[in-house]
Amino acid sequence: MILQASAQLLAVTYSAVLAGELIGDKSIFTVASLTLRLRPAATVCGIVTAFMGKMLIAVLLGHLLTRMPPRWTSALSAATLLITAVSIWISRREERTRAEVSVKWRNAVWIAFSAIFFSEWGDPGQLAAAALAATSDAPGIVWLAGTLALCTKGALAMTFGLSLRRHVSDRLARAIASTCCLILGLISLHGVIAP
User: Fold this and answer.
1) Are 154 and 43 in contact (CB under 8 A)?
2) Which is more confidently placed, 140 or 104?
3) Which three-class secondary structure state does DSSP give residue 23?
């Protein structure tokens, strides 16, 4: 009986979070843009860590997320996405020594983590996870299912980004990725400025 209830909670949370994240969420475009410019392994490490952290906060502090002023979350998203656009624009792909590659890899992980972790707070997926965690006695299952849903969304976005990457030049990929993050940042900034 407990196993069946846990499986149901896992399925409900996964479905609710994934649906909330796929409908109108900017981070799916952010992940695809990051994949255009950054190494896939570094992008995966950054976004999975960010997804885990965001879902942990949603599960543990969901009641605070619902009280955050929308302008604060929009301002944080705007700043993060605009900084990401600049970071992607100024990055260059060049042949480097082995020591320089590890530093660049860490930078790529940090850019991917920051672009996801510091933007889109209080979105439908997080709110769904927060509500499910508050109404169940199994926050670990809610966290796991929510994280898996976010990773599914990330995998879909990365698949799109990688397929696009095969068909565009490095210069065009940098322009597309930077422009997407810039546009998403401006959309978030509109949420700060507009009443």
Assistant:
1) no
2) 140
3) coil
CA nearest to 161, candidates 22, 20, 43: 43
Q: Is the dihedral of CA 23, 27, 33, 35 positive or negative?
A: negative
Query: What's the chain's length in residues?
Result: 195
Contact 9, 146 (CB under 8 A): no
pTM of the predicted protein model: 0.80
Contact 21, 125 (CB under 8 A): yes
Cα 35 from Cα 111, distance rounded (Å): 11
Upper half-sphere CA count for residue 98 (Cβ side, 13 Å):
0
Residues 131 and 62: beta-carbon distance below 8 Å: yes
Neighbours of 56 (CB within 10 A): 15
Separation of alpha carbons 14 and 144, rounded Å: 9
Band (pLDDT 50/70/90 cuts) for residue 49 is: very high
Residue with tokens 């705007």: 78
Amino acid, single-letter form, for residue 154: G
pLDDT one-digit tens code per residue, 65-114: 667 777 887 787 788 878 888 887 877 654 444 444 454 888 889 999 99
Quote the tokens at residue 72.
């604060």
